From TrEMBL:
<keyword id="KW-0677">Repeat</keyword>
<dbReference type="Pfam" id="PF13812">
    <property type="entry name" value="PPR_3"/>
</dbReference>
<protein>
    <recommendedName>
        <fullName>Pentacotripeptide-repeat region of PRORP domain-containing protein</fullName>
    </recommendedName>
</protein>
<dbReference type="InterPro" id="IPR011990">
    <property type="entry name" value="TPR-like_helical_dom_sf"/>
</dbReference>
<comment type="similarity">
    <text>Belongs to the PPR family. P subfamily.</text>
</comment>
<dbReference type="InterPro" id="IPR002885">
    <property type="entry name" value="PPR_rpt"/>
</dbReference>
Amino acid sequence: MCVLNAAHRSRSQPVEAVEALGEDARATGCVKTMTALLNGYRSATGLSDSERLDRVLEVLDYMKSEGLKPTMTTHNSVMLTYLECAAPRQAVEYYKNHVEGSATRPDEITFKILVQAYELLGLPHKVAEVQELEDSMRIISGRYVP
């Protein structure tokens, strides 16, 4: 049973509130719940950027150690955390190491994150590449509406 819902992951809460939910979340073995916990840390108040990033990566590592396969939502949340913590290069590296070439298909949010990261890095040619990739995937999969 997944114990955290959209309300938990969509609003900022004090870090203590997120930590209180953590033990219950870990006990569920549910990817959606662990992703919600990860997002709780991503938006928690009372953490520095480095602490926020550490907590998010700890949850991700825990998921992997328990054999829970991160979803694209999980990956997007990690990449967003890097962006929000002023680490766009790490967001791109995360994508390259965990999404690109994997069975996990990037979605519209993934492409928006990559565009924002490349814009922050001052790499307009990479922005164009991402937009071309998104367009080609849209044509192939029919999943996206231009």
